[in-house]
Amino acid sequence: MRGRTRVGAALGVLLLVLVAGCSGAGNRGTTNGFVSGDGSITRVDAADREKAPVLTGEGLDGRPLSTADFAGKTIVVNLWGPWCPPCRAEAPALDQVAEQYADKDVQFVGILTRTKDPTTAIAFNRNKGITYPSFTDEGGQLELGFNDSLPSLAIPTTWIIDAKGRVAARVLDKVSASTLANLIDDVQKSTP
């Protein structure tokens, strides 16, 4: 009888641990293996902006890619994955604003994260009509470059780098076209 009580107690504790782990307590926003953002927007005054990392690596097409090639432009960097529901939801807005600002010295670039095979990302971009380049960054090294300025705390994360190469804004979670356009306008106006 005593053995059954111990087994029953152990199963009860295990059940409580499992229920607590699935409840998200202390882990707000965890969904399907990723932490979603809270939608917060961080803007940095021009005088307080930190230097952005120069992102260098390989694009989805296997060719070398570097944000240094876009020096002097406002750069919008989006951390994403085709497996991420908010990333899929925001893709049309990103594409819309990328097209809207293509002739306004703005360059969009993605950082594909936690995706071993870029084939699904290539298909996703083709399906959504996204033509701006994306880095492959399965190990997360490129996103770590933002740790000294505005680190990523969620997927998706969108950063705006001003024309002087400084991190000017960050959005945690999906972003709407109007919010993103307003942020880009603010960054361009506030960059001397």
Automatic annotation (TrEMBL):
SUPFAM superfamilies: Thioredoxin-like. Its main location: other. Residues 46-189 form the Thioredoxin domain. It is found in: Cell envelope. Residues 1-25 form the signal peptide. GO terms for biological process: cytochrome complex assembly. The keyword Signal applies. It comes from the Bacteria. GO terms for molecular function: oxidoreductase activity. PROSITE patterns: PROKAR_LIPOPROTEIN (PS51257), THIOREDOXIN_1 (PS00194), THIOREDOXIN_2 (PS51352). Keywords: Cytochrome c-type biogenesis, Disulfide bond, Redox-active center, Signal, Signal-anchor, Transmembrane. InterPro entries: Redoxin (IPR013740), Thioredoxin-like_sf (IPR036249), Thioredoxin_CS (IPR017937), Thioredoxin_domain (IPR013766), Thioredoxin_ResA/DsbE_sf (IPR050553). It holds the Pfam family Redoxin. One of its GO terms (cellular component) is cell envelope. This is TlpA family protein disulfide reductase. It comes from Aeromicrobium fastidiosum.
